[in-house]
């Protein structure tokens, strides 16, 4: 009998559908399969959304290599605009990035000499008391990708003050963030969590998935808020899953996601003090973590776009820690929130019609979509378990859905 996938394989990619993967059971040993590293699978080369996925060949002939080099040479010398367009993706990669425009001050030079110092003299906030200017200390960002509209995805290294975990974080701001009209306004934050092991990279920082472009296009169409997108690593290593939780004796990944990443965001960007400007999105294991965080911390986060059908915790490290596992179980967290009568949270499931998992979502909604727990399920027609199709679902309605439950920036009336 076919078994629905609960966690993707360690070789999961954003464009790869997942094989069956059973959930953790209390008598499992973390060093037994399927939690031990899977056998190496050649990386995949993504094709266009909905198109075929091919394996990278293990070896290439010398003739093929020379042919490829010749084609690249022709493109660079004779391809004109095409070559320039492609090369522009990487223009400036590795260079320092400063997000937003802070007016210069007398001690600006000292701030540049000490990257840990907060920027001086930020613009006065608008009349909205919920707006919070960047608090500092500022982080050092390096460009990793440049998008067609000139916006930048950049990376920094974050040492979590509360979790003690140190990992990479990628960030992107929309064009509106650097617009002087919005210099005094806060911006909503979307924390994007990947599937798979979520380490050492976060695949939402890959421009090929189109997340940032979808947001920019939605802003122009009036269907999306201009989100700041924060993309942290999800796990501390590439071997096990930690369910975005503080599992006893393990790195505190729950605190990393719920405390350190938001604190880092507030230090570097203009945001909102209240939960009305904070949401998650995620796929597969990242969907589980995002939903769990919203249900676990409804005072901090308001909404989540959860793609791929993850519902319950299943890290092998929960063995012997049933009480802690229950405290990180969305089913129990949802019931606790219902019993408390609020605050309201919003969960938007996305599921492709060509993947399994909808039955779990439907059962979860039937049981827990009541009182303060607001829940919807969006079907992605012909969608599979991959990031491209989840972004398509966001463009088709989920971005507009989350934009309606969060607050957005207001331009300066002056």
How would you portray this structure in words?
With 414 residues, the chain is α/β, with parallel strands linked by helices. The protein contains ten helices and 14 strands. It has helices spanning 62-78, 81-88, 108-113, 211-221, 253-268, 285-296, 322-326, 330-340, 358-368, 387-405, and strands at residues 44-45, 54-55, 96-97, 131-132, 141-146, 152-159, 166-172, 189-193, 228-232, 271-272, 278-283, 303-307, 345-352, 373-380. The strands form three sheets. The protein has a ten-stranded mixed beta sheet, with helices on both faces. A hairpin with a 5-residue loop joins strand 5 (141-146) and strand 6. Helix 4 crosses helix 10 (387-405) and helix 6 runs parallel beside helix 8.
Oligomer, anyone? single chain
Query: How many β-strand runs?
Result: 14
Helix and strand string, N-terminal first? EEHHEHEEEEEHEHEEHEHHEHEH
Number of helices: 10
Rg computed from alpha carbons, rounded to a whole number of angstroms: 22 Å
The geometry reads as globular
Mean pLDDT: 80
In order across it, which strands form the biggest sheet? 3-5-6-7-9-8-11-12-13-14
How far is the N terminus from the C terminus? 65 Å
Report the β-strand fraction as a percent range: 15-25%
Report the major sheet.
Answer: 10 strands, mixed
Q: Roughly how much helix do the residues carry, as a percent range?
A: 25-40%
Structural class: alpha/beta
Unreliable sequence segments: 1-13, 15-87, 102-121
């Amino acid at each position: 009998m076919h078994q629905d996938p609960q966690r993707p394989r360690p070789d999961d990619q954003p464009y790869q559908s997942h094989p069956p993967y059973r959930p953790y059971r209390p008598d499992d040993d973390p060093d037994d399969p399927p939690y031990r590293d899977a056998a190496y699978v050649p990386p995949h080369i993504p094709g266009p959304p909905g198109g075929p996925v091919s394996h990278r060949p293990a070896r290439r002939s010398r003739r093929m290599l020379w042919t490829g080099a010749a084609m690249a040479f022709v493109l660079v010398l004779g391809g004109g605009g095409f070559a320039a367009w492609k090369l522009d993706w990487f223009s400036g990669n590795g260079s320092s990035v400063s997000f937003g425009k802070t007016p210069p001050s007398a001690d600006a030079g000292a701030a540049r000499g000490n990257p840990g110092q907060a920027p001086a003299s930020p613009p006065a906030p608008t009349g909205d008391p919920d707006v919070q200017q960047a608090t500092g200390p500022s982080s050092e960002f390096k460009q990793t990708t440049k998008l067609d509209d000139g916006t930048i995805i950049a990376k920094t290294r974050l040492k979590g003050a509360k979790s003690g975990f140190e990992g990479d974080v990628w960030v992107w701001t929309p064009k509106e963030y650097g617009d002087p009209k919005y210099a005094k306004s806060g911006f909503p934050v979307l924390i994007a969590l990947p599937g798979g092991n979520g380490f050492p990279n976060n695949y939402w920082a890959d421009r090929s998935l189109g997340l940032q472009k979808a947001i920019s296009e939605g802003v122009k169409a009036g269907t999306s808020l201009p989100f700041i997108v924060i993309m942290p690593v999800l796990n501390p290593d590439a071997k096990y899953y930690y369910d975005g939780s503080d599992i006893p004796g393990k790195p505190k990944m729950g605190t990393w996601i719920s405390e350190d990443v938001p604190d880092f965001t507030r230090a570097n960007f203009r945001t909102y003090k209240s939960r009305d400007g904070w949401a998650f999105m995620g796929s597969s294991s990242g969907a589980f973590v995002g939903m769990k965080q919203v249900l676990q911390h409804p005072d901090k986060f308001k909404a989540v776009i959860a793609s791929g059908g993850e519902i319950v915790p299943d890290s092998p490290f929960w063995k012997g820690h049933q009480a802690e596992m229950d405290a990180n179980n969305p089913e129990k967290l949802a019931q606790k929130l219902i019993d408390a009568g609020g605050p309201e949270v919003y969960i938007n499931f996305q599921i492709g019609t060509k993947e399994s998992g909808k039955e779990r979502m439907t059962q979860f909604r039937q049981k827990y979509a009541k009182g303060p727990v607001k829940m919807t399920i969006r079907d992605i027609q012909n969608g599979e378990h991959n990031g491209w199709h989840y972004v398509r679902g966001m463009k088709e309605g989920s971005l507009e859905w989350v934009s309606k439950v969060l607050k957005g920036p207001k331009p300066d009336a002056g």
